[in-house]
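Complex record, two chains
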Amino acid sequence: MTVVVQTESFDLNNTLYQMKRNNSSIGAAVSFIGFVRDVVSKNETEELTSLFLEHYPGMTEKSLLAIENMARERWDLEDVFIVHRIGRLNLNDPIVGVIVLSKHRKNAFESCAFIMDYLKTEAPFWKKETTNQQSYWVDMIESDSIMKLRWEK
Amino acid sequence: MKIKLLYFAKIKELVGKDSELIELPSDVLTLNQLKNYLISRGAPWHEIFSSQTVVRFALNQNLMNSDFNLEPNAEIAFLPPITGG
């Protein structure tokens, strides 16, 4: 059970094998990495040059732990790791990483998607995009709220 | 009562600071009353609340989904649309 907010990059593979070590109940590992991509949210003709990520220290960590706990209540999980970067990021940099370890693959696949859908809409992070022309804070992304709705029954 | 306000991202840029301690008039007791009080202080608050700049609020680091009562020394954060991940 770990959540990390950091400026540095991360290596999920290394973390995953450390978490797997000494736990023979784990039969499945699912990981997700989100990267900075070239298309900006506002205007597809502008090219992204860098990204800045701001967050709400204290609340961010609490909110990521709450998301992990919601996932653990819903699925039987062996271990969870969530890392999110802050500060200035460049094109192709990893932004967010999630690892879920469980006995069977179904729980790991589903809970990893669940964690990302909630992180996108509940964890207090904000992106500012810089293009070759301007900088602006990213607006609400409608599809993210819709993705989260699939878990609400 | 005295409360702490926290500003993030676009709101921080519009207000020009990341936080402030404010002493509220005695008739400001709820979030909605606080919003009206800030709007009465003038720019940039009218713009912040009339547009979609602030979409959610946190009380003592918990997301709130509706109006709530203020309490002395509360930490209230104005959150723009969340866009992490």
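Note: Residues 2 and 23 of chain B are 4 Å apart (CA to CA).
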